[in-house]
Amino acid sequence: xxxxxxxxxxxxxxxxxxxxxxxxxxxxxxxxxxxxxxxxxxxxxxxxxxxxxxxxxxxxxxxxxxxxxxxxxxxxxxxxxxxxxxxxxxxxxxxxxxxxxxxxxxxxxxxxxxxxxxxxxxxxxxxxxxxxxxxxxxxxxxxxxxxxxxxxxxxxxxxxxxxxxxxxxxxxxxxxxxxxxxxxxxxxxxxxxxxxxxxxxxxxxxxxxxxxxxxxxxxxxxxxxxxxxxxxxxxxxxxxxxxxxxxxxxxxxxxxxxxxxxxxxxxxxxxxxxxxxxxxxxxxxxxxxxxxxxxxxxxxxxxxxxxxxxxxxxxxxxxxxxxxxxxxxxxxxxxxxxxxxxxxxxxxxxxxxxxxxxxxxxxxxxxxxxxxxxxxxxxxxxxxxxxxxxxxxxxxxxxxxxxxxxxxxxxxxxxx
Length: 416
Known about the structure:
Elements: H1 2-9, H2 16-37, E1 39-41, E2 53-56, H3 63-70, E3 75-80, H4 88-97, E4 100-102, H5 109-120, E5 124-127, H6 145-153, E6 157-163, H7 165-168, E7 181-189, H8 191-194, H9 199-210, E8 236-237, E9 241-242, E10 245-248, E11 251-254, E12 260-263, E13 269-271, H10 281-293, E14 306-316, E15 320-332, E16 336-340, E17 353-357, E18 361-367, E19 371-376, E20 379-384, H11 392-405
């Protein structure tokens, strides 16, 4: 039994079928990305037969395919456990392209070992150091540990920058707009070069090479629904503070004060009948972060901040998702989230209220548009709201509480 397990572990990560799957995907998706995203994904002509560690910024749900267009052969993407927890679909993805799984809530040594293994087999690896797509249009926070990981893997580092993605498909939007995108390798850092660099120096170079700021002028992006679902990203009104928003077409409005904004083809925001204080969503998003970082969570211990109707599941890592409640209520407080109600809609066997205290949450992350993964003790809960659901506010408040209570003076990161 032990010998059979050992032999199984020695099977190579890289398989011929991965190359076949890549070539088929390229033939199908290359014309699709051209039509949908109007992207110029420059081929990396210097690739040759070498393997690389690709580090990329993250703007659209199709970023991995842009990388696949630029690089020859299969690319092994590091991905969080969520895509591995969808039953048969996940099994098919593993068989076809063998992404490298990483568990978000901990320092996953197993993922590091798998990356080194793929590198030694001659495979090219891709990682998005932000770990999530940008809401603001700017390249978001990256964990400094990416520099140490890159050194351990030992491959030449290809910095792959994607530009225009926030204009074409902002994370808060459902559809793609008509506009232009561009992606390419902007720099290669050879192992001989980074061997003489400190982790801090390498991290600074990675940051600089991947940084994109699209909260400023640059191109036109046409759509009839330019502002729709902006409420997924914004929940702080410049005039009345914590609020909720609705949107339709190219307009969005605050449900408290009723002020309305219009989102233009040039990404500019204008007030409808008044002067709005911010020109771009990125500036508004910065204000929102500053506002939340100024909140004292202790002022909201017994006060409900937000409430939403959601679906609740438990993620069974690397297997599937177990439905707990098809429709229940999530409530946000300064130090916790509660899920459930007093009308008998169970969220946990024998209980009506599931209390997730921020002290017991290892991590919380927005998934896609309107989902949250909450890593609570030994469980992972997935919360899914309506199409207009703002998942970000729950993650932001969780991080704000942790930063505040841990006394971290530099703790300004509010999650993604």
